[in-house]
Specification:
- The chain has 378 residues and is of the alpha/beta class.
- The chain folds into 2 domains: 182 residues, Rossmann fold (3-Layer(aba) Sandwich); 180 residues, Glycogen Phosphorylase B (Rossmann fold), CATH 3.40.50.
- Helices cover 41% and strands 22% of the residues.
- It has an 8-stranded mixed beta sheet with strand order 4-3-2-1-5-6-7-8, with helices on both faces. A 6-stranded parallel beta sheet has the order 11-10-9-12-15-16, sandwiched between helices. It has a two-stranded antiparallel sheet with strand order 13-14.
- The protein is globular, with a radius of gyration of 22 Å.
């Protein structure tokens, strides 16, 4: 059995793709995942939900790691938040495979807390560390692979792994959909109206306010109800747009629910909306395109038979190429209401043929770990 040590920058169940990956990773590898090392100023060692040790310096962390690593240990980083520490870990543990999963946008934000470097310098630093110290960088889409190549990450360092859907839960949700929907309609007095669902981190690149400005023009809003889930720095702008432009009985906001509750809420909808943009973000004297690289919530929707209204941003179109009939991928946001009305008036039968299950993801990880250990130890 491999002893897998997971490195992260948080222990919360915040709404988001990286957080969902971490939660599923720990659940799957809990017998092999000896611990979770969390960096948030100090370094905490977690087993389950319990902190069993806390260290101030990386030297102390390395001493701890030396006491628990074996010839079958894997260092797995849930994102690039540890990029500054990786060269030290590489030097101290040359025999341990280092694997990083990148969400795509974190390449540009990994060194955000270092004030004395430009964005270009930070990206160059991240690329050098990945190329010199990391065995494998896991990307989640062709879009991410292409962008990583463009900034200089070596091709042989990268693999693509897509997916991350709890198919046991989605199967239960499908079986219980009518009951769950009836309970929602009764609780929120929606009278069985056509239900739009948005479940998202509330970040500018998600384009939610822009989508609401388009949605308010729809002449059929009295037939619909909007269910909104999530949290983030755009929360006040989103709620203000809803309060100003829509009747109070048109929308329901449930806040930052757990990931499993979000997936269940997606399952009761009639359509799932992903309004992500290719958002030009200005940081550290430079700009990068912050956008949707994979779209886990869209995968969760189509796995449950819920059609999509999605903006063609980042890696979104890859979902539509991988499947036959999953909704509308919009080249122009002003097409959203027309496509929404088609689904409302004509119905829509989703035909998703790709397997996005966690089982498939972790099966790939297991093969990757075996290959890396064989390369390290012969």
């Amino acid at each position: 059995m491999n002893r897998i040590i997971l490195f992260s920058d948080n222990i919360s169940s915040r709404f988001g793709g990286m957080e969902a990956h971490q939660e599923a990773f720990i659940g799957y590898y809990q017998k092999e995942c000896f611990c979770l090392v969390v960096k948030h100023g100090a370094f905490d060692v977690m087993t389950g939900q319990k902190c069993v040790a806390s260290y101030i310096t990386l030297t102390e962390v390395c001493a701890f790691l030396e006491s628990v690593t074996t010839p079958e240990t894997i260092f797995f980083f849930n994102n690039l938040s540890w990029v500054r520490e990786i060269p030290v870990l590489r030097m101290r543990f040359p025999y341990v495979p280092i694997v990083i999963r990148s969400g795509g946008n974190d390449v540009f934000k990994a060194l955000a807390k270092e004030p004395d470097m430009t964005l270009s310098q930070k990206v160059t630093c991240v690329v050098q560390i990945v190329n010199q110290c990391v065995d494998v960088l896991i990307a989640n889409s062709d879009y991410s692979l292409k962008r990583n190549r463009a900034i200089g990450i070596h091709e042989e360092k990268m693999v693509k792994v897509r997916g991350g859907v709890d198919t046991l839960q989605t199967e239960r949700n499908i079986l219980n959909r009518e009951k769950n929907r009836a309970e929602f309609d009764q609780k929120y007095h929606t009278n069985g109206k056509f239900l739009l669902v948005i479940a998202s981190r509330f970040a500018p690149f998600k384009g939610i306010v822009e989508y609401l400005h388009e949605l308010r023009k729809a002449p059929f809003l009295d037939l619909c109800h909007l269910l909104l889930l999530g949290d983030g720095k755009e929360k006040q702008r989103i709620l203000s747009a809803l309060e100003q432009d829509f009747p109070l009985d048109f929308w329901t906001y449930l806040g930052a629910v757990s990931h499993s509750d979000a997936v269940r809420s997606i399952s009761i909808g009639d359509v799932f909306v992903n309004s992500s943009l290719e958002w030009e973000e200005n940081i550290d004297g430079g700009t990068f395109i912050h956008t949707e690289t994979m779209g886990r919530s869209m995968m969760e929707a189509i796995t449950q038979g819920i059609p999509l209204i999605a903006h063609n941003a980042g890696g979104t179109r890859e979902l539509f190429c991988e499947n036959d009939h999953i909704g509308y991928c919009l080249d122009s946001p002003d097409m959203a209401n027309e496509c929404l009305y088609k689904i409302l008036s004509q119905g829509y039968q989703v035909k998703a043929r790709s397997d996005y299950s966690w089982e498939k993801v972790f099966s790939y990880y297991n093969r990757l770990f075996e290959l890396l250990l064989a390369e390290k130890h012969g």
